Amino acid sequence: MLSIDRIESGYGLVPALRGVSLRVAPGEIVAVLGPNGAGKSTLLRTVSGLLATRSGAISLNGRRLDGLPAHKIARLGVAHVVEGRGILPNLTIRDNLRLGSFLRASRAGEQEGLDAALDRFPWMRPRLGDLGGRLSGGQQQMLAIARALLGEPKVLLLDEPSLGLAPKIIDELFEVIGRLATDDRAVLIVEQQVHRCLRVATRGYVLQRGRVVLSDSAEALRGDERIERAYLS
Ligand SMILES: Nc1ncnc2c1ncn2[C@@H]1O[C@H](COP(=O)(O)OP(=O)(O)OP(=O)(O)O)[C@@H](O)[C@H]1O
Ligand SMILES: [Mg+2]
User: Fold this and answer.
1) Which residues contact 21 (CB under 8 A, 6 or more apart)?
2) What is the whole-number distance in angstroms between the Cα of residue 141 and the centre of ligand 1?
3) Residue 40 Cβ contacting ligand 1 at under 6 Å
């Protein structure tokens, strides 16, 4: 269970998150929605330790994460797929995936992890020697997700995975995303594709100017006009 309690963080003097609290349990896909500049990416950056928490607490299964450096947080089971994917274009698919395996607790099971990734994304199998940069945007996004999964994260943070992708590819991507949560893995996803996202999510939070203004089950949020209002104001 990832618990975020009244965290504040930001850039320079400007607070971007003003007391955000949120919970994500294993098996859940939790959506973070909200207009541009609401603080969605900042929230993910704060959880993964790319940005320091100024107050409040973040813990994973009771272990405090705030204050730890990003690489320790990653080792404790938080994988962050940043906006723009962050795969290495000059490395092959195989080597991009290998990078993900570095975060595994032990070398044992590395091959099984790779096999599982290739079962999830069968199109990668014949292309393991291709450079990451040769892939389409959607494939790069899937590679970034596969790489994150190889570290066996307990929490997977996805920042706008569908950004810049064609509608058909977005549908495929959400198919993949809908199957990412397991009994010991939770997903926290930031998306502009509100409706698609709420179809795969279990719950959602709406952020506005650094605060949670609405949170409910995905079912209740679908078609809730308060979402529309949050985006307009
Ligand atoms: N590197 C930065 N330096 C200074 N201010 C920043 C920086 N990144 C974000 N901000 C500011 O922090 C606030 C929250 O930004 P954030 O990127 O978290 O929003 P977001 O909800 O992810 O928006 P978007 O939908 O555009 O991705 C905004 O006011 C933004 O201008
Ligand atoms: Mg963002």
Assistant:
1) 4, 5, 6, 7, 56, 212
2) 21
3) yes
Task: Tell how far the Cα of 125 is from the centroid of ligand 2, in angstroms.
Answer: 32
Residue showing tokens 């032990």: 106
One-letter amino acid at 219 equals E
User: Which pair of tokens denotes residue 161?
Assistant: 């995975």
Tell how strand 55-60 and strand 186-190 pair up.
unpaired
How many angstroms separate the CA atoms of 223 and 201, rounded? 14
Cβ of 32 less than 6 Å from ligand 1: no
11-23 average pLDDT score: 95
Beta bridge partners of 206: 33, 214
- 96-132: pLDDT as tens digits: 999 988 777 677 778 888 999 999 999 999 999 999 9
Atom 5 (ligand 1) nearest CA: 11
CA of 210 to the centre of ligand 1 (A): 10
Does the predicted TM-score (pTM) go above 0.85?
yes
Q: Please enumerate in sequence order all residues whose Cβ is within 8 A of that of 110, keeping only pairs 6 or more positions apart, or say none.
A: 101, 104
164 lines ligand 1 (CB under 6 A): no
SS3 of 132-193: the string is: HHHCCHHHHHHHHHHHHHHCCCCEEEEECCCCCCCHHHHHHHHHHHCCCCECCEEEEEECCC
